[in-house]
Write a structure and sequence with these properties.
By secondary structure, the protein is of the alpha+beta class. It contains 8 helices and 17 strands. The protein folds into 2 domains: about 240 residues, DNA primase, PRIM domain, CATH 3.90.920; about 80 residues, no CATH class. The N and C termini lie far apart (about 75 Å).
Length: about 350
C-alpha cells in the first residue's frame, strides 16, 4: 500500500469514472463538474479555506447530467444543484465507511479513530479470505474507508445486491463504538476528497480537524461482478434464515437453550461468573457490563476494546441478561451461556426452591 497525493488519487478516479463532481459543503452547497483531475485540484485549492470537500465516486453519464442541470436551472436559476442518482451510469467503486459513534457534530478522538481502523481492516481481511482483491484504504479525518474498484451497471438488480451487502455488513460490524454506514451505497453518494481537511465541530486537542489520507495498493484490481453477487446472496440467505429462526422462536418457549440446575438464577452473580471465565471486560453503566463473548472465535470482526459489542445485565428481579451484537450470536441469551459453561450454579447465592401448589 502506498500513500498518494490528491492529484494521483483523482487521476485514478477519473480513469474509471470520467466526469467527477467536486462539492463543497459549508453553510450552503457548491458543486462543479470536470473530467480533468488538475482542474478539480485547482478548484479544490480555491475552496479549501472553509467547509468540507467531497467528490462523487461513480461513472456519470455526462449528457444526462448536462440535460438535468439545464432543466433544473430553467426552473430555478438560483437552485444549488448536485449530481442525482439517475444520471449515474455505473458503479466503479464499492465504498465502505466506518464511522466512530460519538457526540453529534464533533470530530473523532484518536482512540475512536483507532477503533474504526480496526473494523475497516477486519472487513478487508474477511474479503481477502473470499478472494476479493485489496481495496484502497483511507482515513477520512474522522473515520476509515475502504474503496473497491468494480464495474457494475446502475440497475435495480445491482442496487438490490448492494442493499443486501450493506445491510449484512451493518449487522456484523456496527455496535455502540463504530457504525458501518449502510446509507452510502446510493450511486451519487459523496466521499471525502482525500488530501483535504475534514472540519467537523470545534477544532480541539482531543477532537482535532484532520487532513484525510488515502493509500492505494500497487495492484488495484477490480472486484468481479460474480464476487459481488456471491456476497449479496450470502447476506440475503442469512437475512432470510434470521427471519425464519425468529418466526420459529416466537412459537417456542422464550429463552433459548434448556437449562436445569440447583441454583436460583435470579441470584446469579453474572459479573463474578464472567470474570471467573476470564471474559469480563469492565463496567459500562448502571447494571450493564462489557464482556468477552464466549463465541468470539466465531465473529468475523474484532471486538472493541471496551467490550461494548457484548454485554451482560445484572439481575434486577429476574435472571441476568446477555446480548452479543454480532450476527453469529443473533438470538443467543444467558441460557445459551449457561448451557455452554455448565457452572452457573456455583455463582448463585441462593438455591432454587420451586413453588408448591397450595
Amino acid at each position: 500500500m502506498r500513500q498518494v497525493a490528491t492529484l494521483e488519487y483523482l487521476e485514478r478516479l477519473a480513469h474509471d469514472a470520467g466526469w467527477i463532481e467536486l462539492c463543497r459543503i459549508d453553510r450552503w452547497v457548491e458543486a462543479c463538474w470536470d473530467d480533468r483531475p488538475e482542474v478539480i485540484v485547482s478548484q479544490a485549492r480555491e475552496w479549501a479555506g472553509r467547509g468540507n470537500l467531497f467528490t462523487t465516486l461513480q461513472h456519470i453519464d455526462h449528457d444526462a447530467l448536462v440535460g438535468y442541470l439545464a432543466e433544473q436551472r430553467q426552473v430555478d436559476p438560483r437552485k444549488r444543484l448536485r449530481t442525482p442518482d439517475h444520471v449515474v451510469k455505473r458503479y466503479c467503486r464499492l465504498f465502505f465507511d466506518f464511522d466512530p459513534v460519538r457526540p453529534t457534530g464533533t470530530g473523532s478522538t484518536a482512540d475512536e479513530l483507532a477503533e474504526a481502523e480496526i473494523r475497516a481492516k477486519g472487513l478487508r481481511d474477511r474479503l481477502l479470505a473470499l478472494d476479493w482483491p485489496l481495496p484502497a484504504m483511507a482515513m477520512s479525518g474522522n473515520g476509515w474507508h475502504l474503496q473497491y474498484r468494480t464495474a457494475l451497471p446502475n440497475t435495480d438488480e445491482t442496487r438490490e445486491q448492494l442493499a443486501a451487502i450493506y445491510a449484512g455488513l451493518h449487522r456484523e460490524f456496527s455496535d455502540d463504538v463504530v457504525e458501518f454506514d449502510r446509507s452510502v451505497r446510493n450511486p451519487a453518494r459523496l466521499c471525502a476528497l482525500y488530501g483535504s481537511t475534514k472540519r467537523k465541530g470545534p477544532n480541539t486537542a482531543d477532537r482535532p480537524h484532520r487532513r484525510s489520507v488515502i493509500w492505494l495498493p500497487s495492484d488495484w484490481r477490480q472486484v468481479h461482478p460474480r464476487q459481488v453477487a456471491g456476497l449479496a446472496e450470502f447476506f440475503a440467505r442469512q437475512s432470510s434464515q434470521t427471519r425464519s429462526d425468529s418466526d420459529r422462536s416466537a412459537q417456542e418457549v422464550r429463552g433459548g437453550a434448556r437449562v436445569s440446575g440447583r441454583g436460583n438464577y435470579a441470584s446469579l452473580d453474572v459479573v463474578r461468573w464472567f470474570a471467573a471465565h476470564d471474559a469480563y471486560v469492565g463496567h459500562l453503566e448502571g447494571h450493564k457490563h462489557g464482556v468477552r463473548c464466549p463465541w468470539s472465535d466465531e465473529h468475523t470482526s474484532p471486538s472493541p476494546r471496551n467490550g461494548s459489542d457484548t454485554i451482560v445485565f445484572e439481575a434486577d428481579g429476574g435472571w441476568p441478561g446477555f446480548h452479543c451484537k454480532h450476527a453469529h450470536c443473533d438470538g443467543r441469551t444467558i441460557r445459551d451461556v449457561m448451557a455452554l459453561w455448565r457452572d452457573a450454579d456455583a455463582f448463585c447465592s441462593e438455591t432454587f426452591h420451586p413453588r408448591r401448589a397450595a
